[in-house]
Specification:
Elements: H1 2-16, H2 21-31, H3 39-42, E1 45-47, H4 64-72, E2 78-82, H5 87-90, E3 95-101, H6 104-113, H7 117-125
Antiparallel strand pairs: 1-3, 2-3
Helix pairs in contact: 1-2
Length: 129
């Protein structure tokens, strides 16, 4: 429900800015994908695992790969999609292996702010999640 609302708000904001319905939906999907769109299907998300952590569980957070990702992912345009302290906002529990590409500028902003993607979208684009 929250994702549907956020997507609809983004579409509405582009409509109000003068975009046609189809264009508004396409533009909105670039900042808030439609709820039925899997992040994996969009090509923006990836699960990152290593030989010492082959399962999607919180044990990945104890690996050197995770330490590297914490330090450098934003430089390459990636964010930790579901941080440990943001599950009430994202609706998804902590997933230290799940990263999403948002671009270098957005990733840096998100990393510096300490916000999750949903919070950052609200703050940056005034999209209510």
């Amino acid at each position: 429900a929250a994702r549907q609302s956020a997507y609809e708000a983004a579409v509405q904001s582009y409509r109000e800015a003068g975009s046609k319905e189809e264009d508004a939906a396409a533009k909105a999907a670039t900042v808030q994908p439609a709820p039925e769109a899997s992040e994996y299907a969009t090509g923006y998300a990836a699960d990152i695992l290593t030989a010492d952590s082959l399962e999607e569980n919180t044990g990945f957070a104890d690996t050197r790969a995770y330490e590297w990702l914490e330090a450098y992912a934003a430089e390459y345009g990636f964010i930790l999609r579901y941080p440990t302290d943001k599950s009430a906002t994202t609706g998804i529990g902590y997933e230290p292996w799940h990263y999403r590409y948002v671009g270098k500028e957005a990733a840096s902003d998100i990393a510096e702010s300490g916000l999750c993607l949903e919070e950052w979208l609200v703050e940056t684009y005034h999209v209510q999640a």
